[in-house]
Design a protein that fits this description.
InterPro entries: LysR_HTH_N (IPR000847), LysR_subst-bd (IPR005119), WH-like_DNA-bd_sf (IPR036388), WH_DNA-bd_sf (IPR036390). By secondary structure, this protein is an alpha/beta fold. The chain is 38% helix and 21% strand. The longest helix is centred in the N-terminal third of the chain and has 28 residues, at 61-88. The model has no long low-confidence stretch (mean pLDDT 87).
Amino acid sequence: MAPDTVSLRYFLVLAQELNFTRAAARIGIAQPALSARMRRLEAELGAALLVRSTRSVVLTAAGAALAESAPPALAALDRAWDSARSAAAGEVGTVRIGYSLSAGAETAPALVDRLIRGSSGLEVSAVPMATPEISPAVADGRLDAGITRGAQPGRGVRRFLLRRARVGVQLAQHHPLAEHSEIEIADAAAYPLRLPDRAANPVIYDQLSGLFRDAVPSPRFRTPTVSFDLSQYDLRDGLTLAPASEAAVASLSAGLTWRPLRGAPGMTLHLVLPREQSPLHRRIRAVAKTLADELHWLPD
């Protein structure tokens, strides 16, 4: 039977001091209590550890052997306890995050960076995915978390509002509407409007196209030939507008700008986690909430 670690740590202090009075003072307990601890430790071991006299304390052969071998054993035990505590706090493990392309401009990188910097024991990987695929992947365990635009449908997951942003349009800096600080929805509807293929994100497509439902004449929607064109080439004609949230500002290429649409409802980004959550999932949630608060992603 192994001795209790408290008595073993007390013994190591005594082995250094070789004096009960000094050792008890260093530990912060009464001398009789220390003596009782040492007698109990010797009884558990079945061997004498100390030779006591009125003036000195001398280690026996067993005591010297224990004083030499105990520190690395206790250090290993401390590491085991720390590992268990870290696992219970969700601070160790592998995190797989899937995110919609629009979240890659700012939101996903910020969350990944905060997770890595906050927990050295976490290995984090993040990959862009088609938005409708993210929630099912979280539900069946292929992903630990997801970031999606809009409250995407799906079973077996929980969604947490992560970010709310104004809705506006991306446009060329020389576009006739770029001189306005805000653009009326009716004015925007007079120009060609680029929207992604609905299959890529039906929730957001319906929200954005619905902004122009009552416009007269009916708006002209375009689907880009290249679904993810970093150059935003089709906006450079000075006519086409691309409805998008304010988060798009972070990834605008040269020659383009963004203007809010007056009266348009905000667009949301959600953190998606499994319905049954482990300490790791709760850690992701806590980090995401702190990040959202610090960066004012959820304004009042």
